[in-house]
Write a structure and sequence with these properties.
With 245 residues, the chain is of the alpha+beta class. The protein is 27% helix and 27% strand.
Length: 245
Amino acid sequence: MKNLGSQIAKNGFKNEDDIAEKFNNWKTDPESPVWLSIMGYQIDNIEYVFAVVLHGYKTDVQVQITVKLKTLIDAQNIQVKLVSNINGFNQVDKRWVDKYIDLWSIPYNVVNILKRYTGEISPDILNPKDNRRMFIHEFSHIDQSILYSWLENNKVLIINDIIKGRGQFAAEWMLVAQKIQRNSRWVLHPINLCINHFGRGGIEFTKRGNIRLGNVTIQRKGGDSGRETANMLQFKINPAELFNL
């Protein structure tokens, strides 16, 4: 059986608005009927489709589907990842460390480690590699052990929150659209399959001094022309990995 989850696209996808427009033109668009089929709908039973772009949630595009003989409208929440290279590393979450404290019940000693890691708190060692922050290998073995244990105990919660989110607009699907030069392709998977993939594997403190949580990289945001926002905590994935599932 042909894999409907990953196909060559006839045209590239520019942004989330482009994806929503394709759903809204489901009767004539080449890709959106395939997406709807992957979501479990029989195209002949669909009466109406309306898609809207959301902002500030894990869901980028919500698709509302009216099915014949059903009184309720289905809503499918899709997280869209647009990548333009082979690796396609993509930010999935970025916040100040304090914003994660209540979300994950982070104890003070772990907060202190994370803030030194991002640069919210200046390095407290002699001759740090970067005067703005500390890399993981620069922390004491005790601090590394504290952080490792906390990540290990909260791994499932962290992966779920950064990829799926919570509440009404938690993502249910991930659509990855990749365009390299003139070649375009897409893949659509249930969010739980994506969570299983990106959560697979253990915890690693890399040689470059960053953190790997399964297939997720945790790092200082950096950049931003030296503004304070460079000191935020950032989670990154490679959505292109989903083409291999």
